[in-house]
Amino acid sequence: MSEIPLSPRGASETRSISPSKSYCLEPEVVERLRMETPQINDNTLALAAAEEKAISPLQAIRDYHRAFMWCLFSCIGAVLWGYDVQISSGLLSTPSFRRDFGYFYKNDYVVPARWQSAFNSVGSVGGIFGGIAVGWIADRIGRRGSIAIASFISIGAVFIQFFSPSHNNAMLLVGKLINGFALGMYLSAASAYCAEVSPVVLRGITTGLVNLWIVVGQFIANCVIQGLGSREDRNAYRIPFALQWIFPVILLIGLPFAPESPWYLARKERDEKARMVLQVLGTKDLDLHLRQIQETIALEDHYAAQTTYVQCLRGSDRRRTIIALMVFILQQISGVIFVLGYSTYFFQLAGFATSDSFKLGVGVTAIGVFGNLSALYSVNKLGRRTLFLGGMIGCTIINFGIGFSSISDTKAARWAEAVFTLIFGLVYQGSIGPLGYVIFSEVSSAKLRSKTVGIGICVNSLCGMLANIIIPYLVNPDEANLKGRVGYIFGGLGLLGSIWTWLYIPETKNRTVDELDSLFEAKISSRNFAKAEVDR
């Protein structure tokens, strides 16, 4: 066993990483870490980690119920992300929307593919800039402040969408672009907040709540479309736009009562305020956990004193950033936009009646909610790496199944595609969907979390934008008209993604922030993260 001392504060406490039989640390790596890493005082990290890991998730929810509830609250903005995405694609199946923003083609109104791509992707463009901006904003005014700014921006953006006149596609596009900026801020701030106010045992659950709220938003959107989509007047799409005002208003009402992240406060040297927040969140040993935060910040300052975006691409932080970005790229190449984002429209193209398509769309998101809830349980039982890899393999198989089903144009084949779509919703939302937000929140260092998370949301938005631009041209009847055969494309991409997952996604379950810092600094292989022991 090689002992790796931690921080120059004059204490005797040391940390050591015990490699398993399958690998060992290179001698020069051990010596470098022995010479370069600081020593931490009073066994703070060891005692705090032992206390957090000693309780079960259920007990943690009881003991830290206030922290858990505030995590639920901070994720409300994610509802708007899911709602906005689903409304954008779902309204394509609303006849009055196609009439007011499309043109007449072969006995029906169709929104041109270029405008479909624009409507569905412009929010992602805004999300790119929102994700980047929140890294700077959150480090200056806190997580609460960035959520408040996003709420005001979203209210104005929805106003533009609601009052967009018929055939003024450009005005509607501008409203969606501005709202996308707010959505990118929402996701980044919520993910960072949940990771920082939760104890280790709850971190996978609370960060996974971000995706759960996204799916809830999609479910609400599909229910709204089903209820209003058959109307022949403008309210068929104006009411769905107006309902978006609900979520930022709820956030603005509750934010004055929400506690700020104690990590943000400690980094700003507002230690007494951080102590008060820890007490509000339900922390028992306030001094111990405040010292844990301070010592971890000191440790990360030793590794890298800078907190710039450039630092995200240097040293061990580069590897952490790549993993944080890749989980969202893997989400997109699994085919989620194709299978879930276009589910209602896809059902119509497959031959289902409009009313049946709406019902199937609601069914897809309802199953997704169930899958997310199951993931909140299995994330601690199976672990992040195992669940994510299983999801990638499952989605790959389903995509190939959709592709094979599209070979025939029979009623049985159309129903097979519908069944595969429903199964995809269960598998994706029970694994890749929530685990992406868990992994990218956990692998980033505490000091760079808001920036790494922001870059992750940026890449997520960029990938979503590309998918939303390309897929209409593949699916639309006036373009390539591939329909379910698009499943072959995403099946092949998913196979490559499964291989990357097996090679590079680490297991971060039950790892404290300082343990993850040590494992990444020691360059432990992602496949051996679960086996490595960090003893103190």
UniProtKB/TrEMBL annotation:
Residues 1-20 are annotated as: Disordered. This is Major facilitator superfamily (MFS) profile domain-containing protein. It is found in: Membrane. Pfam families: Sugar_tr (PF00083). It catalyses: myo-inositol(out) + H(+)(out) = myo-inositol(in) + H(+)(in). Residues 70-509 form the Major facilitator superfamily (MFS) profile domain. Belongs to the major facilitator superfamily. Sugar transporter (TC 2.A.1.1) family. Keywords: Membrane, Transmembrane, Transmembrane helix, Transport. Its main location: membrane. GO terms for cellular component: membrane. The chain crosses the membrane at residues 67-83, 118-138, 145-164, 200-221, 241-266, 323-348, 360-379, 386-407, 419-440, 452-474, 486-505. InterPro entries: MFS_dom, MFS_sugar_transport-like, MFS_Sugar_Transporters, MFS_trans_sf, Sugar/inositol_transpt, Sugar_transporter_CS. It comes from Kwoniella mangroviensis CBS 10435. It is a multi-pass membrane protein. GO terms for molecular function: carbohydrate:proton symporter activity. NCBIfam families: SP.
